[in-house]
């Protein structure tokens, strides 16, 4: 039995789920669908690419690779710094645009503004870096047989482990930290949370920073396993929203599980009907969830 398609779906699903965490946090706390979220993913990846080259030059080629991995410390360091910078980009966009619209209380205008911001960020990214694909590394890796016809490269195994670590860390952070509890309180009832003394503005800042950083992490991991393109965030936008809604808005584990379901479903679709119809799977899942169980798998009923 060859289950390679299942492994491929789980890898893509893990990256979708990681990016969907930012979508579910933004939607549950700020009460609007941010369609510019995919551009945070793309911008973070390109920032990491530029920083990786700079850091690699500074280190003089030391530790270009870590063991069997195709990348080394320059990419790791660049990824961490890029996550911080992408969080600042998301926060800056909120200060320049969304905060002014949010004060007027019109969610539809905010959604439309996020469409415009998405197009502007994507066009600027393509203008700066062109549409030519880029790579963190062109190192060719040999896939390791794991049984049942499944083969994974060391990069893929590492990224699955890193995704699991980030998700567990986020879940613990949301459950145990003061800011995590404040975010959950604002998500449930922002007016009551403000009356109870929660610093809502601080929660909003943390939401944008965390959402941008997680989008960057997902983009860097995707860039390591595939390639980097200006449209990479736009191509993942529908799967990100499908995963967030399927898992239940506001649920971090739900977003990841939703991402895994979307990823595996797309892999099965490619196996059955071909890659041309892959993009339709996320749309069908999204529609089905909205019709059958709008609260998602782990979402709380309003």
Key attributes of the depicted protein:
mainly alpha, single chain, 2% strand, 74% helix, globular, 302 residues, 2 strands
Could you explain how this protein is built, in words?
Helix content is 74%, strand content 2%. With 302 residues, it is mostly helical. Strands 1-2 form a two-stranded antiparallel sheet. Helix 1 runs antiparallel to helix 8 (200-225), helix 3 packs antiparallel against helix 4 and helix 9 (232-247) packs parallel to helix 11. The model has no long low-confidence stretch (mean pLDDT 87).
Compact summary:
With 302 residues, the chain is an all-alpha fold.
| DSSP E strands, number | 2
SS summary, helix count: 11
Q: For the largest beta sheet, what order do the strands appear in spatially?
A: 1-2
**Overall number of structural domains:** 1
Give me the secondary-structure category.
Answer: mainly alpha
| Radius of gyration based on Cα positions | 19 Å
Largest β-sheet summary: 2 strands, antiparallel
- Ranges where pLDDT stays below 50 over 5 or more residues in a row are none
The CATH topology annotation reads as: ABC transporter involved in vitamin B12 uptake, BtuC
First and last CA, distance: 44 Å
CATH class: Mainly Alpha
Q: Work out the helicity level.
A: over 70%
Do you know the CATH architecture?
Orthogonal Bundle
Strand content: under 5%
Describe the global form: globular
Average pLDDT score: 87
Q: Quaternary arrangement of the chains shown?
A: single chain
Fold topology:
Layout: H1 4-30, H2 37-59, H3 73-102, H4 107-129, E1 144-147, E2 150-152, H5 154-176, H6 178-188, H7 190-195, H8 200-225, H9 232-247, H10 252-273, H11 278-292
Antiparallel strand pairs: 1-2
Helix pairs in contact: 1-5, 1-6, 1-8, 1-9, 1-10, 2-3, 2-4, 2-8, 2-9, 3-4, 3-8, 5-6, 5-8, 6-8, 9-10, 9-11, 10-11
